[in-house]
Specification:
- By secondary structure, this protein is mostly helical.
- 63% of the residues lie in helices and 9% in strands.
- The strands form 2 sheets. Strands 1-4-5 form a 3-stranded antiparallel sheet. It has a two-stranded antiparallel sheet with strand order 2-3.
- A hairpin with a 2-residue loop joins β2 and β3.
- The radius of gyration is 27 Å and the shape is elongated.
């Protein structure tokens, strides 16, 4: 029967003289059945430990976090109460197979490669910043006529859009490097990446509202003309 250790990826739980403490090697860690390990994780560890520790299979190194444990317990309870045949869900098969195919086709990016990419991207951001400064000073120097505004606006948009994309990818790289350095399990890696996705922008000044009001008014007039 599969045995489990309790770990956070760096430290392991063991029991000495009736107390649960940590050690740094799996050779000294305690091993328990799934039920025993689940109860220890839930009832015998400090609250701050519960957030970072999870179960790890001794034989196959399978990782069970708190959400997976709850699902596993739920499935066990379901199996005890139900003896009905479970219908085959082809959409679940397709979803899983597509997911596995996507994972297996991903190229591996080393930590060193990520660091190199980050440095290049930071150089790109500096270049975009210089381009924005050039445009700003060109406008002040030339005071261009109104008919040039669409051209200037399009060029500004392209630079701002590309700069935002590069900044977002730098955030992703920071998350991946952190996962490398802290040896995150897969589920925590996904969480780290999700947390670094672009969040809805919160305006800092009144100018955002001024632009938004003008945009909406123009769109209303355009809709009335096309109606």
């Amino acid at each position: 029967m599969q045995s489990f250790r309790i770990t956070n990826g760096k430290k392991y739980i063991r029991k000495i003289s009736g107390k649960y403490t940590t050690c740094t090697t799996p050779m000294m860690a305690g091993t328990w059945s799934f039920r025993e390990a689940q109860k220890i994780l839930e009832n015998n560890l400090p609250k701050d430990w519960k957030k970072e520790f999870y179960l790890e299979g001794v034989d196959d190194l399978i990782v069970l976090d708190n959400e997976t444990i709850k699902q596993h317990l739920h499935e066990e309870e379901f199996e005890k109460r139900s003896f009905k045949d479970v219908p085959l869900k082809k959409e679940d098969l397709e979803t899983l197979e597509t997911y596995i195919s996507s994972l297996s086709s991903l190229p591996e990016i080393s930590r060193e490669k990520l660091i190199c990419m980050k440095q290049n991207f930071k150089s790109n951001v500096m270049e975009f910043d210089n381009e924005l400064e050039d445009i700003k000073h060109w406008i002040l120097i030339r005071n261009p006529p109104v008919w040039m505004y669409p051209f200037v606006g399009v060029e500004l948009y392209k630079i701002i859009r590309d700069r935002a994309r590069v900044k977002q990818d730098i955030n992703y790289i920071d998350g991946l490097i952190k996962a490398y350095e802290k040896n995150y399990p897969f589920h925590q890696l996904i969480f780290e990446i999700k947390e670094r996705e672009y969040k809805k922008y919160k305006p800092r000044t009144k100018i955002f509202g001024k632009f938004e009001a003008y945009y909406k008014e123009k769109m209303k007039r355009k809709d009335k003309k096309t109606a």
